[in-house]
């Protein structure tokens, strides 16, 4: 008779084994073992990649017992789980994070060093998984970190793109896109679960039929079927046993796919079609804040939504006989409208596949879902043509029409005779070609709708979603974004973390408000000196990186003035450039005048099809070329464009900043999260009253923030009156000189055509009103320079900024979501310790 396997956590004798043990000797042995058995290499022949893989497996092993215990606890306790649906998770590297969250940094460093290797080199070897574009995807990553740290049962659901965000190269000053083959050497962090694969239908038509009870039912006869295979990556909490899964779906053709075509002899045609369905999870669309109405994109959205909802339902039915109480075990968050088709898919699954009646299904759906809006830009609100929808998701279109019919019936009863209101609220835009409005679908199908900063939520209520707010004021709620202090302070700025630890211990990492205790040191010369030394150290490291990657020598004592984020006209990187050119003009007029030496650093990707954004990159590099080489400048201004800005580059950049540029047109940036990372690392902000800048200023204190520019209301009023950029141009000699220099071809070897589209846009039809804010921005920079010259004052302001950023920990944000939207509680995971070393 065979003996059943004893689960590791129930073994009668707990031993320090090579998969769980954490003393240095065990770690060394496990590392060597993985190198031999998993990489198949002798140490003498192993590459950096082999070392990285062997170490990654060593760490993953140490996450597994916690991971399995977490899942088991959730099942046994039948807890309510948060399901975070997001088309993007911009996780950044896993290894450093695992070392931190497992408290293994020092021991692993020692084990690696005693093996004759360098841990930093190994860490650098990990590809940065770029399964997201920018703020929205990185927010999802910070949220899963906080969920695990706060011991909240949660699953992140998304797409396992084979190609993440492209690698940005700069050729002749222009952006070039290189495919990101991040899985080339395999991904040691994920575990595939083909046993939990699900099938997703696409296309075809619907038909009526009688079920056994003699009721009329609808069924969907699809044209295609695709299989979703889940890949799970462990997300460990900091200083807890909780390890939640990030579950990403890969598309594969189903085995019975096009069986007829195979049999009919059309083998290659059938294989070609098979490949087509596998392209669904091939590549991330590289647009941030600007949707592209491509069929494949809708297929991606539906694919991961359908896989995830089927998985959620399966999990629920393991413990409950019916789906009537799904909202008691599941809170599903829609990260923007990308997964909003989930509202219709949930209705379909409940009614067509689980025999629920409409009213019950609708009640369950509304109680289960909530929706986060991330943008006010009208062009970024997703809509899908009804024709495309019908072609891909015929059953869902029927359901959406029925949701709409019932919804508009209600509205007509509440507001009789208001046809304009009806057409604005309708889930279908019928003003021209018909479109499905995804934000409207998400609002109607959710019990809560939130914006991501106070101003953003206020503008949603007043403007973008005002009609919905009128119907259901109680649905609308603000959840100001946050970022994880584990990655964005401890991991990226170890010296700062050490300083904090030396004064108040490590408690601040789970309760950032503890940093306030350090305010008593703001006038302590020793503390201030240490503060400056840390910043200088970080700046030196970035200067070294710039030297190695751009061949530009920058002075670590100059002010590092940094703008890193996606390139977009509303973010106004070109306003920053106008100011730099203004400074240059001053130097050209009077080369001897005093000027605070400054290094202007830019980074960010442009959507490949966004011409104006690409032209802004070209202009940045062209201005850099001229100014960096002009002898009159004498090195007092340096401009650097760092290519391929991503999470790991961000970790080098934020800690090295003196000044953080947050200069979007007021009312355009929903929140921003880079602004928080800079401030937490002691950078001062120069910014507009936009997004979370407003709250950063409130927290830091008005006197510790460089504010300029029109308010959102003033922007709206100026627009209403008719914004005329030429008035500013003709009445402001400094602005005129800047624009004339660009237009004259000064930065383009005399070519007056190159930057004409940018100049014309600014001069004649600029929606983002750069000229209206130009003078205020230049004046504010004068204030910045003056303050920077007084290093004692600057240090004080920098310290207060960093210490007052508790509000912007994603732990605070997630706690609010848990209490006010999801109604979920922490579930601690009890583990027996394997050895003293683990304690
Ligand atoms: O989401 C961030 C915000 C930021 C906003 C960004 C965003 C995307 O990255 C992509 C699409 C979208 O609609 C919004 O632009 O302001 O901080 C996280 O909320």
TrEMBL record:
Catalysis performed (reactions): [(1->4)-alpha-D-glucosyl](n) + phosphate = [(1->4)-alpha-D-glucosyl](n-1) + alpha-D-glucose 1-phosphate
SUPFAM superfamilies: UDP-Glycosyltransferase/glycogen phosphorylase
CDD domains: GT35_Glycogen_Phosphorylase
Enzyme Commission designation: 2.4.1.1
RNA-binding listed as a keyword: no
Keyword terms of this UniProt record: Carbohydrate metabolism, Glycosyltransferase, Pyridoxal phosphate, Transferase
Record Pfam families: Phosphorylase
InterPro entries: Glycg_phsphrylas (IPR011833), Glyco_trans_35 (IPR000811), Pyridoxal_P_attach_site (IPR035090)
Keyword Transferase: yes
PROSITE patterns (UniProt xref): PHOSPHORYLASE
Cofactor dependence: pyridoxal 5'-phosphate
Family according to the record: Belongs to the glycogen phosphorylase family.
PANTHER family: GLYCOGEN PHOSPHORYLASE (PTHR11468), GLYCOGEN PHOSPHORYLASE, LIVER FORM (PTHR11468:SF3)
Purpose of the protein: Allosteric enzyme that catalyzes the rate-limiting step in glycogen catabolism, the phosphorolytic cleavage of glycogen to produce glucose-1-phosphate, and plays a central role in maintaining cellular and organismal glucose homeostasis. Phosphorylase is an important allosteric enzyme in carbohydrate metabolism. Enzymes from different sources differ in their regulatory mechanisms and in their natural substrates. However, all known phosphorylases share catalytic and structural properties.
Protein known as: Alpha-1,4 glucan phosphorylase
Species whose genome carries this gene: Limnospira fusiformis PMC 851.14
